[in-house]
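Input record (one chain):
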Amino acid sequence: MATRLNPVSAPAAANSERLYQRLARLLIDDMVAGRYTVGDRLPAERELSIEHNVSRPAVREALIALEVQGFIEVRVGSGAFILRLPGDSDDRPDFAITAFELTEARIVFEGEAAALAAVHITDIELDELTHLVDQMATAAFDNAEVADRAFHFLIAKATRNKAIQMTIEEFWRVRSTSPACTLLHNKARTANVRPVVEEHRVILAALRSRDSIAARSAMRTHLTAVMDHLLFATEERAVEEARKAVASTRARYRLAAQT
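The corresponding structure, as predicted from the sequence alone:
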């Protein structure tokens, strides 16, 4: 059985990997050792969390890392199943930036960018932001996401700092090109998670007031909510509730057909 992880007592210097990376490697080791084989269902998220003494978000990140590389398949309402076993010593998880890591970085950088933009932003740029927020409120899903990206890019531009602008644009490039990020954001899309218009309106109001503290707080609040939405998209409980809702709907249709 895999060794339990202990995020509290494990010396940081002994292993620079994040917990989800260590957990993913342990699960791969379990496959190599024969604990799991192709077609087997992995223990539920909660069970893995308890067994390895890690948070459920860390379990989700580990499963996403394995899913991206084709080791497992996460089936809605059923769990994670082994698709293939490691072929050799080189066939091990290759960890890219995850959506959770990226969002953590965005909270730090885009919060400060909003604070700086509040000092330099022009009335014309504020009007452009207003138009983008209105687009988010009325556009179809894909166009709302385009407006969302443009909203954040414009705030980065309003900092009048090219390095900040380049950094934030790179974050968004990674968001759309990293396999791990793409997988999780697709899951969020399936769960019908879309840009929250009111959160963007609060950011806009703070910028319009030229209030750096309020702008920083509003941006961090928004991106923390984004993190929560990503967690929701991978939350087994939410998936199970969706499965039950579908089953209930089917039952109603069957009943109606019999009457």
